[in-house]
Write a structure and sequence with these properties.
It is a single chain. The protein has helices at 2-21, 38-53, 65-74, 90-114, 137-144, 168-176, 199-210, 237-246, 253-265, 281-287; strands at residues 25-30, 57-62, 81-82, 85-86, 119-123, 130-134, 160-166, 180-184, 186-189, 194-197, 214-219, 224-225, 231-232, 234-236, 270-275, 294-297. By secondary structure, it is α/β, with parallel strands linked by helices. The strands form 4 sheets. Strands 5-8-2-1-11-15-16-14 form an 8-stranded mixed sheet, sandwiched between helices. It has a 4-stranded mixed beta barrel with strand order 6-7-10-9. Strand 9 and strand 10 (194-197) form a beta hairpin. Helix 7 (199-210) runs parallel beside helix 9 (253-265). The N and C termini lie far apart (43 Å).
Length: 298
């Protein structure tokens, strides 16, 4: 009986959050181990379907870096990175498009659909969803809060892009038809070429374009740590800027917090960085009083 009562208490704790977020859009950036561990993949799909059934409108943006690296190595192409950016020549772009827009995207959409919700997989190229612009070192340095002094001249990053604009009407039409959009992070430039775009930044741009209630970024760490290495449960935008400047936030966490800041600047209420290795991490962050990650406030 005690176990049953505990389960009932969990539902009661979730009730005010379900009521508050009913009808609202939640953009989820799906990445890290949660995309490769079979049990975590299944749990992720279950969580997304549950969000839909209790009245929220989830939108999934996924990464796939490890899977791209794996395919490149199978084809004897060595993955290359500069300042955390994947160098994307024409051959690599073909692999990126095949893996992200094909294999991974359809697998995620299929898994969600098998758990009882209608999911539609698409890439940023479909219907002109994401208009891309070529990556520049100056733009990336600005996003990461660094200077250009350590950036070598003449470095070519190939078909790496950034988000120029998002056509939110495509996603709203899918939501109106009760579907969950699952989006691969690439876009088309004015030159007609396909560009590989950082998935975190795509998620932030889509959250802003949809006027989402929340952006939730799944990672392989508990959240954001302070200068003493302690987990921080809540931060404001100004705190993030200070921590980036001091170097407390660095490397792979930089594009994630930048995506959160972009979303907040675009009108999103809250952004969350959570550990996707925790089973049902999304539900624990959204529907419990304490949460499990770091929430970032406007």
């Amino acid at each position: 009986m005690d176990e049953l009562i505990k389960k009932a208490n969990v539902l009661v704790e979730a009730l005010p959050y379900i009521r508050a977020f009913a009808g609202k859009t939640i953009v989820i950036k799906y990445g890290g181990k949660a995309m490769t561990d079979p049990s975590l993949k299944d749990g992720f799909a279950t969580d997304v379907v549950l969000l839909k059934y209790v009245g929220l409108n989830p939108v999934v943006v996924h990464g796939g870096g490890p899977q791209i690296d794996q395919m490149l190595k199978r084809l004897a192409i060595e993955p290359k990175f500069r300042q955390g950016v994947r160098v994307t020549d024409a051959a690599t772009m073909e692999i990126v498009e095949m893996v992200l827009g094909g294999t991974i995207n359809k697998e995620i959409a299929s898994l969600i659909s098998r758990h009882g919700a209608k999911a539609v997989g698409l890439s940023g190229k479909d219907g002109g969803l994401i208009q891309a612009k070529p990556f520049t070192k100056a733009d990336w340095a600005k996003k990461l809060g660094t200077d250009l002094n350590s950036w070598a001249e003449g470095e070519d990053y190939g078909l790496v892009g950034d988000v120029q604009a998002v056509d939110a009407s495509i996603l709203k039409n899918l939501q109106d038809s009760n579907a969950i959009p699952v989006i691969a992070p690439m876009g088309v430039g004015r030159d007609g070429r396909t560009y590989n775009i950082n998935a975190d930044l795509v998620a932030g741009a889509i959250a802003a374009a949809l006027g989402a209630e929340k952006l939730v970024v799944l990672t392989d760490v508990r959240g954001i740590k302070d200068e003493d290495g302690k987990h921080v449960s809540t931060l404001a935008r100004k705190d993030i800027a200070r921590m980036v400047k001091k170097g407390t936030i660095s490397e792979g966490m930089l594009p994630k917090v930048q995506a959160c800041l972009n979303a907040l600047e675009g009108g999103v209420k809250k952004a969350h960085v959570i550990d996707g290795r925790t089973p049902h991490a999304i539900l624990l962050e959204i529907f419990t009083d304490k949460g499990i990650g770091t929430e970032i406030l406007a």
